[in-house]
Write a structure and sequence with these properties.
By secondary structure, the chain is α+β, with helices and mostly antiparallel strands. It has four helices and 33 strands. The chain is 17% helix and 44% strand. A hairpin with a 6-residue loop joins strand 15 and strand 16. Helix 2 runs antiparallel to helix 3.
Length: 632
């Protein structure tokens, strides 16, 4: 019933607009993008121009816009005595989005290759006909007439020579066609990485206005557009343990809005309008037999480490530049030219969200360290949308709602590639987000490529200490502990670790779960040697009356082979009893601090260079001797 009512209303809206447009003077307006606020998902685009309004009613048609505009987000600001009567959004299927220069060059290259393939296929057909002609006419003489030996010999030699020549030419032509098809596939791969070449309509915004007198006034047009995103990543560099940590904050920017952002005023925001702003509510927890507690859609996964794989299309062709994100976070990466990706994941795991322009986005649970993804092409055609807007508005509403501000971002202009020089940046912290305004105009092309922008360099005063849990891993890990890190407004993201000018691995800056100190692992140091061995003479089992007693003694040694003293934290444990009849007693801890709830034993000490120290961990376990208990 709802559909039957909606359709006449839609036609009525379009009909009224068409009737008004016919009676009004239409002015086509071409604009360029002046300001962009880039969110985690999507962007708010602003265009500014000056328009000569005639007296009376007129219709302004803003052309050449993105086909991915969210019609509900359109805002128009007009200064002066101009009355806005309506603002409408539509898609123009007569004008298609112009290809970028790189894709256009590749398309011409494919057209030239196709022409060569057609020529070679024609040659192949001619050779096949000539071969057939020879085979059909290889019979000489007649049924009643013989043939002389010399004629037969000459004919056979000629036939064999011609057939051999034709076969060679056919094989050579086949090889040419195969080579051309390989060249074509390589160019098509470049097109896939640069952007879609499917015909797409252009977006348009039609503004109907009324003026008492002719006048020229500035017009500002803003809207939210999809197919644009960014995610943060970091380089963490430490030269040695006597200097601060250098944190390089980078933005990985991608846009395929089919609009050129050329020399725009760029802002990068930590806000994500696509997440929604509806606060969750508790469900009533009714306790009864055979009922389950209420469930909430909260991802939980104990998987940690990294996840890697290949992103491909339905035919198995790699999708270079595909976006891979941990859903609900800013942790992400992009697939390389072979469609391969590798992404460090937070301890909580979660879901992997894989997206590529022109394909359906997939969301997958992270239940393995290797996840290969095949995306299906999105064949749904864009439909025309006509929306009545709300007239003139000041900078409020969506503009205010979408203006978030991102932490720590500065961008270097494209020509400055030889030296990394931070561009002047103004940081503004809003109530719910952080935004960085780039003072230098920036250009980002509309293509399926990730542009890595170095944004800011932070020298972080750090306290260095070594950390080791020899029961789990004998290697000592160098940790940099940074206090007061909140002032840098960091987002969670993947980080590359460099120590002493050497890449040592990846980690996650998961600021969602950080305390007042940011702990950064700088990798393993083989110059700090840790051993953990069981002392046999003190490891024994005694049977006393109704109780069995087990004694365990572990010897832990640490040697510093470095030229400077090291501060170190060493962790081990004793078992924790969960029943009263099992008694655990810590006999010797060598100065370690025991957490009785968890059984953790911590030693914190400074070890001079070329020195060695030892710790004893001795504990006893008593339990009923008629029970079977396994003690490490």
């Amino acid at each position: 019933m709802a559909n039957k009512i909606l359709i006449p209303i839609l036609f009525l809206t379009v009909g009224v607009f068409a009737a008004n447009a016919q009676g009004n003077r239409e002015i086509k307006v071409k604009t360029s993008v002046s300001d962009v606020t880039l969110f985690i998902k999507g962007a708010q685009v602003t265009r500014k121009t000056s328009v000569n309004f005639p007296a009376g009613k007129s219709s302004l048609r803003f052309t050449g816009l993105s086909p991915y505009i969210d019609a509900k987000s359109i805002q128009v600001k007009v200064d002066g005595a101009v009355m806005l009567m309506s603002v409408n959004h539509a898609l123009n299927y007569n004008d298609t989005v112009k290809l970028n220069n790189e894709v256009a060059a590749h398309v011409k290259q494919i057209e030239a290759i196709d022409e060569k393939i057609r020529t070679e296929q024609t040659n192949l057909e001619i050779l096949a006909e000539e071969t057939g002609f020879l085979k059909e006419n290889r019979r000489i003489g007649g049924a009643d007439k013989g043939i002389e030996y010399n004629n037969l010999k000459l004919t056979a030699e000629y036939y064999n020579q011609q057939i051999a020549a034709m076969t060679g030419k056919i094989a050579k032509t086949d090889r040419k066609i195969k080579t051309l098809n390989e060249e074509k596939a390589a160019v098509q791969k470049k097109i896939a990485s640069a952007g879609s070449v499917k015909p797409e309509p252009t977006g348009e915004i039609i503004l109907v206005a009324d003026c008492k007198t002719a006048l020229s006034v500035p017009v500002e047009l803003s809207y939210f557009v999809d197919n644009a995103s960014w995610f943060p990543s970091y380089d963490i560099r430490a030269k040695d343990i006597t200097q601060p940590v250098d944190l390089v904050y980078k933005a990985n920017v991608m846009q395929n809005t089919r609009e050129e952002w050329k020399n725009v005023k760029l802002r990068i925001s930590s806000a994500n309008p696509r997440l929604g702003s509806v606060a969750p509510k508790l469900k009533t927890y009714t306790l009864d037999y055979w009922t389950k507690p209420p469930r909430y859609d909260i991802g939980s996964n104990d998987l940690s480490g990294t996840v890697s794989g290949i992103v491909a299309d339905e035919n198995g062709e790699p999708l270079a530049g595909a976006s891979i994100m941990i859903k609900g976070t800013t942790i992400g990466t992009a697939a390389d030219a072979d469609g391969k990706y590798s992404l460090a994941i937070p301890a909580g795991g979660g879901e992997l969200q894989v997206a590529f322009i022109g394909y359906n986005t997939q969301t997958l649970p992270i239940n393995s360290s290797n996840i290969n993804v095949r995306l299906e092409e999105n064949t749904q055609a864009l439909e025309e949308v006509v929306v009545v807007a709300y007239g003139t508005q000041k900078k409020s509403g969506l503009a205010g709602a979408l203006s978030g501000r991102v932490a720590g971002v500065s961008v270097q202009p494209e020509p400055a590639r030889q030296k990394s020089v931070p561009v002047p940046v103004a940081q503004v912290e809003n109530t719910t987000s952080v935004e960085f305004e780039i003072k230098t105009p920036y250009t980002i092309a509309s293509e399926n490529k990730t542009t890595v922008v170095e944004m800011e360099h932070y020298p972080l005063p750090a306290e260095y200490e070594y950390y080791c849990v020899p029961k789990a891993d004998r290697d000592a890990f160098l940790m940099a502990n940074v206090a007061d890190w909140e002032q840098y407004n960091l987002l969670e993201g993947e980080a590359n670790i460099f120590f002493e000018n050497t890449f040592v691995g990846k980690t996650i800056l998961d600021v969602r779960y950080m305390s007042d100190t940011l702990n950064i692992s700088l990798g393993r140091d083989k110059n700090v040697i840790v051993k953990r061995e069981k002392a046999k003479e003190f490891t024994q089992t005694k049977f006393l009356s109704s109780k069995a007693e087990v004694t365990r003694d572990w010897k832990i040694s640490v040697r510093n082979n470095k030229r400077q003293p090291v501060s170190m934290v060493l962790l081990d444990q004793i078992p924790v009893s969960s029943v009263s009849e099992i008694e655990v007693t810590a006999e010797k801890l060598s100065g370690g601090i025991l957490n009785r709830e968890t059984g953790e034993v911590k030693w914190k000490f400074i070890l001079p260079p070329a020195q060695r120290t030892e710790f004893d961990l001795l504990y006893k376990v008593r339990y009923p001797k008629d029970k079977n208990l396994t003690v490490e």
